[in-house]
Amino acid sequence: MTDRIRVLVVDDHAMVRQGLRSFLEVQDDLEVVGEAADGSEAVSRAAELLPDVVLLDLRMPGVDGVTALREMTARGLPCRVLVITSFTEPAAVLPAVRAGAVGYVYKDVDPPALAAAIRSVHLGHTLLHPDVARVLSEGEPGADPARLTPRERQVLTEIGRGRSNREIARALGLAEKTVKAHVSAILAKLGVQDRTQAALYAVRAGLA
Amino acid sequence: MTDRIRVLVVDDHAMVRQGLRSFLEVQDDLEVVGEAADGSEAVSRAAELLPDVVLLDLRMPGVDGVTALREMTARGLPCRVLVITSFTEPAAVLPAVRAGAVGYVYKDVDPPALAAAIRSVHLGHTLLHPDVARVLSEGEPGADPARLTPRERQVLTEIGRGRSNREIARALGLAEKTVKAHVSAILAKLGVQDRTQAALYAVRAGLA
DNA sequence: CGGGACCTTGGTCCTAGGACCATCGGACCG
DNA sequence: CGGTCCGATGGTCCTAGGACCAAGGTCCCG
Prior knowledge:
Two copies of one chain form a homodimer. With 208 residues, chain A is α/β, with parallel strands linked by helices. The first copy, chain A, has two domains: 5-135, Response regulator (Rossmann fold), CATH 3.40.50; 141-205, Arc Repressor Mutant, subunit A (Orthogonal Bundle), CATH 1.10.10. In chain A, 50% of the residues lie in helices and 13% in strands. The longest helix of chain A has 15 residues, at 176-190. The radius of gyration of chain A is 17 Å and the shape is elongated. The N and C termini of chain A lie far apart (42 Å). The A-B interface holds A 12-23, 86, 107-111, 159-162, 164, 192-197, 199-200, 203, 208 and B 12-23, 88-89, 107-108, 110-111, 159-162, 164, 192-197, 199-200, 203, 208. The structure holds a DNA duplex (30 and 30 nucleotides).
């Protein structure tokens, strides 16, 4: 077979990338052409390798999956992006779908189903859960994490892990004052009262 | 080499099990003798295969990792259990360690470090983060919602909904001072730093 | 090229959160 | 009957959180 589907695998855990690679390489018509461990690397590898399909995790340190996805879409990269997620709420994948993902699968997908999903999106199909499709069709804006800037999302992720401003400053290499400014902006954008509510939001949105 | 360390891999995601298997099988002295996808299967496979080390995820559908661990300990199975977790708070792994785990690693561990950890626990060592070791040594019973009094659980439930002390006071018909006293007791019993972490805990514990 | 968005940082100020300490009443158990 | 635990409440004090304001640099887009 001359034209195999070329797949880029993006996940921050090497064991997950390895597992995905093992799943896919036993399929005659699929080929893993590369891996990336964060969003930034995902964009550069996608531009360099021009895969047909990108399997994209959302939660990654540094540049996350949604930001990477936006970047790929902005650059007009021709790959079809299939999100791999362990999240169950529509809020987690909605930003990704709005940013250009053509579908998503859960991390407990079995190998034949994963392969079928890849083939399906490669053919141009879209794979969405009815709940997600409905929310999209209703144009529900809501407390949309997509409206946060990339840095704000990083800070929100840390809040969702129960970190103090000082701990977040240390983790992200920022001044505490900078973190406070981001926190204030996040609270305003999400329409929540304090960091506890923001943390709960982050968990529900699958950011933490 | 005649005596390789026999390892059982327990995780609900097949791709993670596959990834772990790939990581470990390139080591001459390690052998993956089986896999399990939930806690119940983990116990039965451990009893059947008698592995030296069990790599155990905690969050699994059905019987979770801590429950499985307790069962293995109760049956006197001789295996050493190394928890694989994506949690960062001591509260997440404390129950597992109390139930008999001899250490834990994070899911972003790299292959040589994972192999080294397995060898280490196989030799009888214990691998614990200083925070976790300290909490254990202080005899802090730990993150067990059952140890909270009924009133504390009510307050924790409200915290898990993002309520302020004043709002909780109003909702439960108490003085704000009373709520603060309960909050302080809750934080101490759960071993968390502030109400945000308590709220996240409540969500994970299914109280909110 | 200028405007806007994002990121970063600092200052000031106020309040909620929480630690620590203390006290009292009721219920339960040895 | 006394001790312990739970629940309730108050006082004092300190700090983290967060609002508000300001400013500068970088990048992108019209």
